[in-house]
Design brief:
17 helices; alpha/beta; single chain; four-stranded antiparallel sheet; 15 strands; globular
Length: about 500
């Protein structure tokens, strides 16, 4: 028996929920009609729980906070640390010394899973285990509702997108032990690339190609095929594509890559970080699942459902890889990301979730029209990237030339725009310098968010080395394809921007 915290006070038992017998007794104390009214009110809450447990889908109407709290209090009472007069003598008994911390977690302090499977039932935590499984059902319903109806399985993990991608690669390694290479369609974002290296795998980078009739850069299918054939399909662990990207890069053609993966008999994993909110991206994944091969796609909980950072959902058209990822996770895990998502999905309900998806699409269109007007008034141009319906990019070349003509500094000084917007409480945009240097590009210094121009400049103009692989013009994908200065803006769920700040900064 573990007595290291034996001096802590015994835990208080949770409130018991009123049952039918209680209401019968109440009728002897107060007016029977009042007691009956109270019982009917209580039963209306119970019906909501009954619907959740039986249908296991997003509720037809979002729950109010009181209903969610009542459910969490009751489920919390199922965990042993909240049993009345419970005596826990193990080394892990859900002990929490701070009452504030206990309240923050609704008493659900045992965590989730067991040492053999993060999605497995925890004997000491029936309530927490039930929340885990209900959250999986609700997340699966939300994914299907977003447009990926071919999804058959998912797992909500207490890890952000990058680490979850690493877990997916490691799980796939057990299923495909000869695989050593990940054929990766380039995107200048560190997390996914480092996720491959963290799994002990070799990155085979496939550069992008310009798309005719637009300013966009897209998937090089021939390059992916050539990479797989050069390495040998047996040694390729998987093809890794990305859907949520900064313009002018557009989402990978995951539907066509899926057909290619099926033809080559090579697994296909998608980094769908914040693509779940975009109907066009969901359609691409849905088509890929039906016509080709997609083993898993990973999405962030905070980017798509607006919860605190720290969770991700692994999903797929079958459960093989999803279950393997769950089994791979070592030890128990934090309940927080799962609980945050559970509360949020209950609060939104089906109408709330659909409403957010619709609102984002409307906001994207609204913002694009006004951004184009603002850019035109300042002599700038909004790049044409019709395949990207999440972010925008502006060509700042004319602004750079104007500054140089006025003797206000060279192109490097354009990075002031990012910091100027940041100081005006507009976070998210970034300036990327892509002018071709006269000599070999030096290594890029680390950027400091919101810092002075000298500390944030040169994204795109310099090379960047990550895990031993050097990228030219890092931050803007291809030095040889573009020589413009860019400013990116991502329009995600819940984001609204005051265009006047941009106009004021440029002016």
């Amino acid at each position: 028996a573990c007595t290291s915290w034996g001096e802590l006070p015994k835990r208080r038992g949770r409130r018991e929920v009123m049952n039918t017998k209680h209401f019968e007794l109440i009728k002897d104390i107060i007016s029977p009609s009042y007691a009956q009214q109270a019982e009917e009110a209580r039963n209306s809450r119970s019906k909501m729980i009954t619907a959740l447990l039986s249908h296991r889908r997003l509720p037809e109407k979002g729950w109010d906070d009181a209903a969610i709290q009542l459910l969490l209090q009751e489920l919390s009472s199922f965990d042993t640390n909240n049993f009345m007069d419970n005596v826990g003598v193990g080394e892990r008994e859900g002990r929490v010394v701070s009452e504030l911390v206990r309240q923050r977690h609704f008493g659900l302090t045992h965590g989730i899973g067991r040492s053999g499977d993060v999605m497995a039932e925890q004997p000491k935590a029936a309530g927490s285990s039930l929340i885990v499984q209900l959250t999986r059902y609700l997340a699966l319903d939300a994914i299907r509702m977003a447009g990926i109806k071919a999804t058959k399985a998912c797992a909500v993990l207490p890890a952000a997108t990058g680490l979850t991608m690493t877990l997916v690669f490691l799980a796939m390694k057990q299923l495909r032990p000869k695989g050593r290479y990940v054929v990766w369609s380039r995107i200048d974002q560190k997390s996914c690339f480092k996720a491959i290296g963290a799994a002990g795998l070799i990155q085979e980078v496939v550069e992008l190609r310009p798309l005719e009739g637009s300013d966009a850069l897209g998937t090089d299918l021939d390059g992916i095929r050539a990479a797989v054939e050069r390495i040998g399909a047996e040694e390729v662990l998987c093809i890794c594509t990305t859907t949520s990207t900064f313009a002018p890069r557009v989402p990978d053609s995951v539907d066509l890559v899926a057909v290619l993966a099926k033809e080559l008999d090579v697994p296909h994993v998608i980094n769908n970080a914040y693509g779940l909110q975009c109907s066009k991206i969901c359609h691409l994944i849905e088509t890929g699942c039906r016509n080709g091969r997609i083993d898993a796609f990973v999405q962030s909980t905070d980017k798509n459902f607006m919860v605190p950072v720290g969770g991700a959902i692994v999903a797929g058209p079958n459960s093989t890889l999803v279950d393997k990822v769950s089994e791979l996770y070592p030890g128990r895990a934090s309940m927080s990301p799962v609980l945050d998502l559970f509360i949020t999905l209950l609060s939104l309900g089906a109408p709330g979730w659909k409403g957010l998806l619709s609102e984002r699409k409307e906001n994207y269109k609204w913002f694009g029209e006004r951004l184009a007007e603002t850019a035109s008034a300042q002599g700038l141009r909004l790049l044409s990237c019709p395949g990207n319906t999440i972010s925008y990019a502006l060509d700042l070349t004319s602004l750079a030339r104007s500054m140089e003509a006025k003797g206000q500094g060279d192109m490097d000084h354009l990075t002031f725009l990012g910091s100027a917007l940041f100081t005006r409480r507009v976070s998210g945009p970034r300036v990327v310098l892509c002018a071709e240097p006269e000599s070999a590009a030096p290594e890029a210094p680390e950027a400091t968010e919101g810092g002075a121009a000298s500390s944030v400049k040169v994204k795109g103009k310099y090379k960047k080395t990550i895990d031993g692989v050097t990228f030219q013009s890092y931050g803007y994908l291809s030095l040889l394809l573009f020589d413009r200065c860019m400013r990116h803006r991502c329009h995600a769920v819940g984001v609204k921007v005051v265009l006047g700040n941009l106009e004021g900064c440029v002016g």
